[in-house]
């Protein structure tokens, strides 16, 4: 999707969805030019020396497969920077990728960040982007960017309720007249579901599996609702008793029970937000319901579960993974809108 290829043809500006699991970069006039896991592989020679080996997909393939001196690092946790130096290096790499490795380009960058981000965390993101080569850095809240990416009428005096479910956080925002009326975030998301799967298999079957295996289980047979059709998947790991590789079969109903706590936390976040929505906007919520974005929105039947729990209409974005970065891109050539919605 190109927003305005004529206006963006000579522009170097970028929008970035800096996610815990994946980073997406949109370049004006080109579209999405980077869609990579937020992972960096580092060889640690000693306490002071380290060498970057790989970024993105290549680095993620190394997770759980490296010798002791190589570590695959995810520099973001819960949507914010946890390792400043690695995050800066990763951003620099992705920015250069977006500009075909032209190091002299200094773009204006808009970065989507969690709505509950602190001033210290804002400063860390801005400084990392500036150190990576940005001319100017603007921050926008992820739910606001998702609303724009979904082409919802955010400037009208009507309620737009966005539920953005990422790897590190789940955020819900009530938006009206170009501003956030209410927002709430919870440390519930894809990563916690993966962790729950890893711990359950370890506890119940004495089998140690990696987080990539757990993610595959969630994506393949994970389901938010009980269904008549039960799916199965083979899981391979190391037997903690014998120490040798072992395979077991796990079904979708068991996975649903494993991730039910995280699903409950997401539902609770939604309910608390609905309780805090001003009465004047509640009628709009009844009519328009919830709009889902983020990778977590791809979990099977999550919209069905939310409809059953809230009794509201629930709509999933056409492409939940790109909604935020496309929304942030929409303000790249609209300075007046950028000033209205950017975080101070």
Task: Summarize this structure briefly.
The protein has 344 residues and is α+β, with helices and mostly antiparallel strands. 38% of the residues lie in helices and 27% in strands.
Percent strand equals 25-35%
- Going by CATH, the homologous superfamily of the largest domain would be ATPase, nucleotide binding domain
Main sheet: which strands, in order across?
3-2-1-9-10
Q: What is the percent of helical residues?
A: 25-40%
- Going by CATH, the architecture of the largest domain would be 2-Layer Sandwich
What is the overall shape? flat
What is the mean predicted local confidence, pLDDT?
88
Largest sheet: 5 strands, mixed
| Alpha carbon gap, first and last residue | 29 Å
Provide the domain count.
3
Number of helices: 13
Top keywords for this entry?
disordered N terminus, Nucleotidyltransferase, domain 5, 18 strands, single chain, five-stranded mixed β-sheet, 3 domains, 344 residues, alpha+beta
Question: How would you describe the overall organization of this protein?
Answer:
It is built from 13 helices and 18 strands. It is an alpha+beta fold. The protein has three domains: 5-38 and 74-144 and 323-341, ATPase, nucleotide binding domain (Nucleotidyltransferase, domain 5, 2-Layer Sandwich), CATH 3.30.420; 154-188 and 261-316, Nucleotidyltransferase, domain 5; 190-257, ATPase, substrate binding domain, subdomain 4 (Actin, Chain A, domain 4), CATH 3.90.640. The strands form five sheets. A five-stranded mixed β-sheet has the order 3-2-1-9-10, sandwiched between helices. Helix 6 (190-205) crosses helix 7 (211-221). The longest helix has 17 residues, at 260-276. The two termini are 29 Å apart.
């Amino acid at each position: 999707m190109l927003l305005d290829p004529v206006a963006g043809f000579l522009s170097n500006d970028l929008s970035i969805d800096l996610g815990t699991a994946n980073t997406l970069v949109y370049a004006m006039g080109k579209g999405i030019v980077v869609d990579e896991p937020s992972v960096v592989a580092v060889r640690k020679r000693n306490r002071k020396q380290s060498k970057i080996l790989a970024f993105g997909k290549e680095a993620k393939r190394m997770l759980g497969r490296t010798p002791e001196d190589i570590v695959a690092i995810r520099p973001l946790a819960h949507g914010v920077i946890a390792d400043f130096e690695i995050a800066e290096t990763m951003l620099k790499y992705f920015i250069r990728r977006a500009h075909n490795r032209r190091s002299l380009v200094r773009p204006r960058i808009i970065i989507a960040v969690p709505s509950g981000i602190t001033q210290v965390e804002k400063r860390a993101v801005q400084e990392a982007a500036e150190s990576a080569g940005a001319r100017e850095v603007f921050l926008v809240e992820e739910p606001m960017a998702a609303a724009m990416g979904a082409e919802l009428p955010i400037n009208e005096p009507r309620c737009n309720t966005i539920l953005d479910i990422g790897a590190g956080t789940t955020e819900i925002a009530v938006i009206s007249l170009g501003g956030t009326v209410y927002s709430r975030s919870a440390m519930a998301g894809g990563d916690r579901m993966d962790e729950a799967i890893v711990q359950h298999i370890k506890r119940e079957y004495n089998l140690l599996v990696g987080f990539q295996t757990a993610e595959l289980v969630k994506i393949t047979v994970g389901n938010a609702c009980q269904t008549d059709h039960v799916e199965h998947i083979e899981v391979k790991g190391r037997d903690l008793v014998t120490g040798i590789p072992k395979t077991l079969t796990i079904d979708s109903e068991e996975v649903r029970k494993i991730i039910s706590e995280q699903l409950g936390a997401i539902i609770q976040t939604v309910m608390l937000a609905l309780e805090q929505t001003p009465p004047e906007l509640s009628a709009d919520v009844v009519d328009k319901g919830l709009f889902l974005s983020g990778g977590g929105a791809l979990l099977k039947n999550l919209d069905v579960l939310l409809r059953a729990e809230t009794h509201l209409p629930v709509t999933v974005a056409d492409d939940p993974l790109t909604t935020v970065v496309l929304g942030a891109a929409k303000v790249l050539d609209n300075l007046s809108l950028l000033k209205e919605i950017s975080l101070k």
